[in-house]
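Quick one: co-fold with magnesium ion.
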Amino acid sequence: MKQVTDYFGCRVFNDKVMKSKLSSDVYKKLKKTINDGKELDISVANSVAQAMKDWAIENGATHYTHWFQPMTGSTAEKHDSFISPEDDGTIIMEFKGKELIKGEPDASSFPSGGLRATCEARGYTAWDPTSFAFIKDKCLCIPTAFCSYGGEALDKKTPLLKSMQALNKEALRILKLFGLNATSVKTTVGPEQEYFLIDKDVYEKRKDLIYTGRTLFGAMAPKGQELDDHYFGSIKTRVQEFMNDLNEELWQLGILAKTEHNEVAPAQHELAPIFATTNIAADHNQITMETMQRIAKKHNLVCLLHEKPFKGVNGSGKHNNWSMSTNTGINLLEPGDTPSENAQFLLFLVSVIKAVDEYQDLLRISVASASNDFRLGANEAPPAIISIFLGSELQAVIDSIESNKPLKANGKTFLKIGADVLPPLPKDTTDRNRTSPFAFTGNKFEFRALGSSDSISCCNIMLNTAVAEELRQFADRLENAKDFNQELHNLIRETIINHKRIIFNGNGYDDTWVKEAEKRGLLNLKSTPEALQYYLHEKNVKLFTSHDIYTKNEINARYEIGQEHYSKIVNIEALTCLDMLSKDYLPAISKYTKNLAETVTLKKSIGVNAEYELELLNKISDELKNAYEAKNELDSKLAKTSEITDCTELSMYFRNTILPLMEKARDIIDGIELDVDSKDWPVPSYGDLLYSVK
Ligand code: ADP
Ligand code: MG
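Sure, here it is.
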């Protein structure tokens, strides 16, 4: 029996492998680059490349690729083999330092939002040595950043790394004031990943799933998730076999897959890894999503990562558990035991509160997509309003600071920050609030609004940068303080007073919250086209440019790509909807009514009662006419999109005009489905899909 400890990370060029394959001089220089983010010099790169290639070949690799994350949200790779010809007709396997550090993919087809004219197609990729290279399907994958020749970021990794640097810089200024000798602060993330698994044979009969990842039609099955019998239920053998294969693959790739369970909806599951440094967690989450889809096929299953594959049951999200840690092993969101640790914790805590309040719009944008619009605010996922949950114990601390009234708990009195010890806070809050988009869970925050298919990079770019900005302001103030403890107390108290509107410990699904949030002046951005417009607001442009995360051009590019992507997605859905109406539903229903009509005629001709058939025939024929009209309306309104050139106007049109028409057609077809013989229905039903894995 193979043991996990023996094969964990066996396909990763990790620290252990580096130590054994590199000379100690080269190893030390590489480590220095990794730890300090310094440039790698070419002679070191040559030695690393040589060792990496030898190791990769020993492990069956024939190709290498710069593996990067363009703005499509998925990953990209272009494989090059190691072969290099010799004069005598043979080959050698070669890989040079310059190929390791930098690649030049012809990248004209990646979205650039106008950052790169098609005629200057080439971009370049640059190795991120903090994320280990790995072997996937005989290919050595080198995690890289992707930029245009002008140096503008065309990917998600570059700004993520920059946002981590920004936070590192400002957090270290704060730690210095507390007398801590840490030399780096990194953000950490553990993303919990939800997904659906359905049988491949059934999947292949649904064009909507194939083209759009979600069902555009389908009446609910008699049984959904109302019994809560799937959540944490025993895992079916076929699913367990998939999970076993998936775990083995992820472990070989050094990914810390930890928790697996059934989720709320039928056919829905979750995988959670142990947390890692943010850029590594982001790489690992991309690999995890890709591996899930690949391994599923081996089991004749399909893994759906879409946020809302089925109407009427829960969709899938991703929880971004986030914290900040020093290289000395201190979690900065851990309350600690001494007055000084407590004070430091409270300062970092209020920096997050202020960041989330001031940059609600950016957090909302970071989870905005056509598919996630179906979840947010739909009583299964957090609302589209961003707010923070602290839990009753921490709330009591915050209240006591705000009101300057002592807090007495467990025989201790807490009044003055920096002088008194906090009452103990529960490690893992038991009164978990599942309805909050941004919850404090003992020693980290959990951002729960992400969609299941989202890259986690975007929300962490926003979060890291916003918190970096608040820490910068705090450090500016505290560095000049005459009485540090007094200034600290005042700063924390003022921040609570000014930003407490973002704290909400109640039920986020309750309608009264929507009204209350409005009163508090919180944003409620219900759709992607609306949310994206906040990207360009002056305060956001200032935030990104001042921390050197994005230039104004890069923000504009992201804005345009976001709006265009939204429109493209809804356009594909609308075309699929029309295709299924014209080629599947309407003909099948028409045929069904023909059969009914023949039955009526036949029965009547021999004097038999045909009331059931006649009534049904009338009902379905009327609805068929309605469906036909809905199809025509959708068709003609969709044709109008070619006249709209402005990307914002277009996405708003798709949102406000096209989506409702698709929904209208769906309602009619779903109604007819309930009346038609299942043998005559052209596609598998929700029952067939949701219970396809036996
Ligand atoms: P739950 O489902 O109750 O939210 P899980 O245990 O499934 O909890 O997930 C919690 C996630 O939080 C895990 O991925 C875990 O590794 C991660 N996590 C724990 N501590 C930290 C931390 N300091 N920083 C980031 N993530 C963390
Ligand atoms: Mg969670």
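If it helps, The pocket of adenosine-5'-diphosphate (ligand 1) is lined by residues 188-190, 192, 259, 272-275, 319, 321-323, 331, 443-444, 446 (CB under 6 Å).
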